[in-house]
Amino acid sequence: MPKDPYAWIEQSLTTIHRADWYRSVQVLSDRPGATVVLSGQEVINFASNDYLGLAGDERLVKAAIAAVAEFGTGSTGSRLLSGHRQLHRELEIAIASLKQTEDAIVFSSGYLANLGAIAATVGKRDLILSDQYNHSSLKNGAILSGATVIEYPHCDVLAIQTQLQQHRQNYRRCLIITDSVFSMDGDLCPLPSLLALAEEFDCMLLVDEAHATGVIGKTGAGCVEYFGCTGQPLIQIGTLSKALGSLGGYVAGSTNLIDFLRNRAPTWIYTTALSPADTAAALTAIQIVQQEPQRRIQLWRNVDYVKNLIQEQLPHLTLLPSESPIICFQLPSPAEALQVGKKLKESGIFAPAIRPPTVPTSRIRISIMATHQIEHIDKLISVLKNTK
Ligand SMILES: Cc1ncc(COP(=O)(O)O)c(C=O)c1O
């Protein structure tokens, strides 16, 4: 019998199953929202990153439809090769206005924005310091760049300082990379301290505002605004696919940085531009973020309400520290996390189990939306009370 070069795949799947790490997708019906129909069952949705409830908003839908009617469905090629729409530029200017930066550039996803920005700004002669809990796109961007990568313990400013003291002088450039809101934990990076270290050791600092854009800061500009760091020399990444309810990613920063990325970021140069529908929807979302602060205010009311109820009524839950709409409680094993996730779903609550290798310890991740009603949250709490 000839050897099957693909036999290892089945063995790997078996190993994944055995560890309770196996994942599969569930089918959603209807528009995204605070409640969704999941595999035919109506559930309250605590699994979405649509923090402001914009992904199903009529205005975004209309803007996307109008853009498709005018410009068609596809962007037909890379912007450098095939040209772009004025809409792309309008979106970039809107992002720069929200972030208070000189300019911005949109990518086809947040993942690609991270890969492109990191791979373009550092190379073999350079050093990257990366938080151990960073999102996969930051970690893979670091690998793609070819730079030496040192992972530091989560948010540990002293550890970064020590690494810089020991290694900075051996490298040409240094880039510190961090999520601003950690996506599977919900806590924030120590941005002002990171900026101080970046200045002291002549480093660039890249901060991923994927879960902060539209959510955190007085105007929804993100953690950079929240920490009073607007205008500081930063490479700011974000996504259009969470609070902005669309699809795509961005880098915001200085005119020179953005101009350089247009010339050097491989995941921007060698890929097709954002579709007209996604571009128009994101542009409308930014206008809503700027014109309707009440959405953000309601989101934070909901977050406070959930956190207070958990503190009062569910003291046994092992909560991870959170300063965002992402609230996680830990479970001892992947199997138990799966079991709790399943029980929640049976009781009408959609809140996913997050397991290794995504995170080091298993947990249930609850993500709060501005459009959750008090009844939705009360139901979450009562179901959690009855779930062992
Ligand atoms: C911190 C972080 N960065 C980047 C991304 C990727 O963004 P996108 O979904 O737009 O590719 C995500 C989530 O998907 C994320 O959580």
Describe this structure in words.
By secondary structure, the protein is α/β, with parallel strands linked by helices. It folds into 2 domains: about 15-45 and about 295-385, Aspartate Aminotransferase, domain 1 (Alpha-Beta Complex); about 60-290, Aspartate Aminotransferase, domain 2. It is built from 15 helices and 14 strands. A hairpin with a 2-residue loop joins β2 and β3 (about 40-45). The longest helix has 21 residues, at about 295-315. The relative contact order is 0.16. The chain binds pyridoxal-5'-phosphate. Pyridoxal-5'-phosphate (PLP) binds next to α5.
Q: Descriptors for this entry?
A:
Aspartate Aminotransferase, domain 1, Aspartate Aminotransferase, domain 2, 2 domains, single chain, binds pyridoxal-5'-phosphate, 43% helix, seven-stranded mixed beta sheet, 388 residues, alpha/beta
The pLDDT mean sits at 96
- Write down the Rg: 21 Å
Tell me about the largest β-sheet: 7 strands, mixed
Gross morphology is globular
Q: What hetero molecules are bound to the protein chains?
A: pyridoxal-5'-phosphate
